[in-house]
Amino acid sequence: MYKLTLELLSALRKASNEEEAKSMRRYMREQFDFFGVKAPHRREISTPLFLAYPPKDSADLESIVRELWQQPFREVQYAACDYLYQYRTLLAARHLALLRHLLITRSWWDTVDTLATRSLGDLTLRYVQVRDSMDKWIKDPNLWVRRSALLYQLKFRDLTDWERLKTYCDHTAKEEDFFIRKAIGWSLREYAKVNSAEVKRYVSTREFSSLTVREALKNC
Fold this sequence. Notes:
single chain, 220 residues, mainly alpha, 0% strand, globular
């Protein structure tokens, strides 16, 4: 086991809070175990360790992140997301397979949204072939992969590929899953910060769910 993993586990265990852990488990529908360490404290613990144990290269980064992801406590997966993003410049187009693995393993909206809007978003900005791969992701059987395709541009603002986003929203518009409907609305709401008139016009010409429409028009 990597020293980073060992020291992170030890530090989080020392900082654990059972009452907070119970609350976190309830919030995540009892799907994951928690130490009960909130995000600000978790980052106070993890940031110095990330600096002390940087990856040697991209292969080392992938190996470390995969090891962190296998740990049973959710805070360690959150730390893995942060570590991956901190050293994101080591990632290349071929690491899309790693991101997909993380997205479909121990999946829930918390890690999925973090990975989609940070590491995946960064990778798509840097590699056109990764952007093109999103055209397959939006048709993927796994709902978290489809949600990621809807959300990877969330922070792009004026760099958003509006035509592509509309295509993805159109493709998933009839889906009944809450997480997909929410993601469509969320992606449109964020783009409305750049072009609210266009979002309002687009939504008016489509038959989206009421959830999607409410979310999409919050900035219009």
